[in-house]
Amino acid sequence: MSALKIKKGATSHSAYNLRPNFSDVIERHTLAVLVENEPGVLARVIGLFSGRGYNIDSLTVAEVDHTGHLSRITIVTSGTPQVIEQIKAQLGRIVSVHDVHDLTVEGASVERELAMFKVAGKGDHRVEALRLADIFRANVVDSTLESFVFEITGAPEKIDAFADLMRPLGLTEVARTGVAALSRGD
């Protein structure tokens, strides 16, 4: 019998090493899922996440093709690379799903979100809230003697930053649409 020797530092090309090397780092991914616009599809997609204990950070759904009866579900989720690959594979197996795109790995994309903030305050707090809204390019969509409602659009990080600055000024309510995303270029 002859023994096979592997040089130090060399890699083995065994059939048992077919699994790619994944890391344990938690990553945020934006998935765009094109589905048939029919009852129960969203429930099946969400059921996939809840049944396996995956979290959804953001979820938006809208019909994008009226004649073809197609809707686009944009999901922002987090997980290890193995979990993200598993989610994409399982989404692709749902009968009503036409396409699954991981915008995070497919190249540059644009993400935007719409949010409304109700800020209650008087005096200096009102002045500071208006000043910050101007810096963040937020619009005043409602105003009373005791509160403002601001509308702001942008990347989720911009919206988070605006919320952090409004909290000490009297932030009382927040409504967010969730992330809408498209890949850039062709």
TrEMBL record:
Pfam families: ACT_AHAS_ss, ALS_ss_C. Belongs to the acetolactate synthase small subunit family. Pathway: Amino-acid biosynthesis; L-isoleucine biosynthesis; L-isoleucine from 2-oxobutanoate: step 1/4; Amino-acid biosynthesis; L-valine biosynthesis; L-valine from pyruvate: step 1/4. It comes from Sulfitobacter sediminilitoris. It is an enzyme of class 2 (transferase). Catalyzes the conversion of 2 pyruvate molecules into acetolactate in the first common step of the biosynthetic pathway of the branched-amino acids such as leucine, isoleucine, and valine. One of its GO terms (cellular component) is cytosol. Gene3D superfamilies: 3.30.70.260, ACT-like. Chain A, domain 2. Keywords: Amino-acid biosynthesis, Branched-chain amino acid biosynthesis, Transferase. The gene is ilvN. Dimer of large and small chains. This is Acetolactate synthase small subunit. Residues 30-105 form the ACT domain. The keyword Oxidoreductase does not apply. The keyword Mitochondrion does not apply. Its EC number is 2.2.1.6. It catalyses: 2 pyruvate + H(+) = (2S)-2-acetolactate + CO2. GO terms for molecular function: acetolactate synthase activity; acetolactate synthase regulator activity. GO terms for biological process: isoleucine biosynthetic process; L-valine biosynthetic process.
